[in-house]
Write a structure and sequence with these properties.
Layout (H helix, E strand, L loop, with lengths): L1 H7 L2 E5 H12 L6 H8 L9 E6 L10 H26 L13 E2 H37 L13
Antiparallel strand pairs: 1-2, 2-3
Helix pairs in contact: 2-3, 2-4, 3-4
């Protein structure tokens, strides 16, 4: 059952310290800059030991491909508010998940590693897809020429 819950979650990690800063700025009705949103969401410029906390993006209420799309549509302030909603949604644990099964905070260095591994996986998937597309093209070309694709030729002795 916990596996099903984990699949339905949309977990993203953000900088804990910057999240607190954003909350304070919003309380005081101060401006939220795009730089602050980037500090919140992108671990590249954070110290390795900076704490990243999980948020559940289902709390945002709509799907976005990435942070840039959020900023484009919601603006920096709306994006910051969306991440606060996502943090509150995660904290509320609406799925009733056991504490030991929930995503845990990690350092910025650990989050960068996870992102790098995801990028490598995506690149590998793209290469696999490209290979399949090339095979499909070869099959189509062979069919157009009236030949059977190489993998389907009958063996003759």
């Amino acid at each position: 059952m916990a596996e099903e819950l984990a699949e339905s979650q949309d977990i993203f990690y953000i900088c804990k310290k910057t999240l607190e800063t954003v909350k304070e700025k919003l309380k005081k009705n101060e401006d939220i800059t795009e730089d602050l949103v980037n500090e919140l969401t992108f671990p590249e410029n954070l110290a390795d030991e900076e704490v990243m906390v999980p948020v559940d993006m289902r709390g945002v209420g709509e799907d976005f491909d990435d942070v840039e799309q959020m900023v484009e549509k919601l603006g920096p302030k709306g994006t910051a508010e969306a991440f606060i909603k996502a943090a509150e949604y995660f904290d509320a644990n609406k799925d009733g998940e056991k504490e030991e099964d929930r995503p845990k905070p990690m350092t910025a260095a650990e989050w960068r590693q996870v992102l790098a591994e995801d990028d490598l996986l995506e690149e590998g998937e793209e290469e696999l897809l490209e290979g399949e597309e090339e095979e499909d093209l070869e099959d189509e070309e062979a069919e157009e020429e009236g030949e059977e694709p190489p993998s389907k030729k009958a063996k003759t002795a």
